[in-house]
Write a structure and sequence with these properties.
The chain is α/β, with parallel strands linked by helices. The protein folds into two domains: 295 residues, Rossmann fold (3-Layer(aba) Sandwich); 109 residues, 2-Layer Sandwich (Dihydrodipicolinate Reductase, domain 2). Strands 3-2-1-4-5-6-11 form a seven-stranded parallel beta sheet, sandwiched between helices. A four-stranded mixed beta sheet has the order 8-7-9-10. A hairpin with a 5-residue loop joins strand 9 and strand 10. The longest helix is centred in the last third of the chain and has 21 residues. It is globular, with a radius of gyration of 22 Å.
């Protein structure tokens, strides 16, 4: 198998985050702490994961970062936009994810990261009031301003390449409509300041027009519609979304494949969350919650395939709730009651109480997605990067195809894609008798 041409990861990589709240500042602080030898990037496959090559008897399992030409963490530069003008240090301190003593150890570094003015419209995130925002005649004017921000950041920070990862809030629910079908219809709607164009789409458009790979870490429509997919292909830029897979949904994509593998039935799955950070506040609005709900509900149906297994999953009742509870801060609690049934229809129950730090789980996802999207760009890949579904709740897929939600299939697909890029044989997990 020949190696696909992958350009080297030379020079600096700028990682731009629309949204500089809990997730992005935890990510930035964590990378700097790791660079200073003050912490480990736990949860990051690009930094800590190994990949098997060849037969098991070959004993070839290098670190992923030693196998594929990823940007070194020392070569990463950070920037972003936010609706508040707090530095990364102040925003991280306010988020309360990492302890103050850790933040203080890299305080000067974080204080030097200050957000650019954001594209914001309260109609799309009703629980927030932005004070550090851009003004413009229409969406296209605002997109041009973001494009200029991108060019200025790249020049001022001597970056060779850029990647953009949306770390902003969940917008109100928008379904794809006529304005989202073609590049021309989208651009016309932007000039008309159409209400079916949301701020996250402005960042996606600006990124693609500047040749910058774009990842959507929220359940927003953002880049998951035909016009944006067409634009990414026209400009030769990779895109992917949506919604970082962190707490409760991560558990579902671990547990549900196990139930299905053992042919255990499911009659009900009730999920509730309490969360007190900015994300929880935003999701307290019913229209923003609907966007998140669509993302979280889609997981089980695709994994369980009720059309193929009606006796086991056709009548599954799946309910998701998110409750804003300020005292909890970033320490989210996800509680699941799972009603299963087995041999001869006998009923059983599983209860899961996951006390997690949402941004601690999301931060390594931001790092991995940024590095892998940069790799994809240097390999000449464009359009939807479905091989990165491992990281997202509601991964984009080609039109007419269902996304893959099974975490273990996702991981196999991602590692096989890396093997393919580097000219290694794909792993099929056949027994050794088939090799000899």
């Amino acid at each position: 198998m020949s190696t696909k041409q992958v350009l080297p990861a030379s020079g600096k990589l700028g990682i731009l985050t629309p949204g500089m709240g809990a997730v992005s500042t935890t990510f930035m602080a964590g990378v700097e702490l790791a660079r200073q030898g003050l912490g480990q990037p736990i949860g990051s496959l690009t930094q800590m994961g190994h990949i098997r090559l060849g037969k098991r008897t070959d004993n070839r399992s290098p670190l992923i970062k030693d196998f594929v030409p990823l940007t070194e963490m020392d070569d990463i530069v950070f920037g972003g936009w936010d609706i508040f003008e707090d530095s990364a240090y102040d925003a991280a301190l306010n988020a309360g994810v990492l302890p103050k003593e850790q933040l203080d150890s890299i305080g000067d570094f974080l204080k030097g990261i200050k957000p650019m003015k954001a594209v914001f419209d309260q109609r799309y995130v009703k629980k927030l009031e932005g004070t550090h925002v851009k003004g413009g005649e229409n969406w296209m004017d605002l997109a041009d301003q973001v494009r200029q921000d991108i060019r200025d950041f790249k020049a001022n920070n001597d970056c060779e390449r850029l990647v953009m990862v949306w770390c902003g809030s969940t917008e109100i629910f928008l379904a794809p409509g006529d304005v989202h079908q073609t590049i021309d219809s989208m651009e016309a709607a932007m000039r008309e300041h159409h209400d079916q164009i949301a701020p996250s789409m402005i960042y996606a458009y600006a990124a693609l027009m500047e040749g910058v790979p774009y990842v959507n870490g929220a359940p927003n429509l953002s880049c998951d519609f035909p016009a944006m997919v067409a634009l990414s292909k026209r400009e030769g830029v990779p895109i992917f979304g949506k919604d970082f897979k962190t707490g409760q949904t991560l558990m579902k994509t671990i547990l549900a494949p196990g139930f299905k593998a053992r042919m255990l039935g499911l009659s009900g799955w009730f999920s509730t969350n309490i969360l007190g950070n900015r994300d929880g506040e935003v999701l307290d609005d019913p229209e923003s919650f609907k966007t998140k709900e669509e993302s979280k509900l889609s997981v089980l149906d695709t994994i369980l395939q009720p059309d193929l297994y009606p006796q086991l999953y056709k009548d599954l009742y799946h309910k998701v709730r998110i409750n804003y509870y300020p005292p909890r801060g970033d320490n989210k609690e996800g509680w699941d009651n799972i009603d299963i049934f087995g041999w001869m229809g006998q009923k059983m129950q599983i209860k899961v109480d996951f006390l997690c730090k949402d941004s601690i789980l999301a931060a390594p996802i931001v790092l991995d997605l940024a590095l892998f999207m940069d790799l994809a760009s240097r390999a000449g890949m464009m359009g939807i990067q479905e091989w990165l579904s491992f990281y997202l709740k509601s991964p984009q897929a080609a039109e007419g195809l269902d996304p893959e939600h099974d975490l273990f299939i996702q991981l196999m697909k991602m590692k096989n894609n890396l093997r393919h890029l580097m000219g290694e044989d794909l792993i099929t997990h056949l027994g050794t008798e088939y090799y000899d």
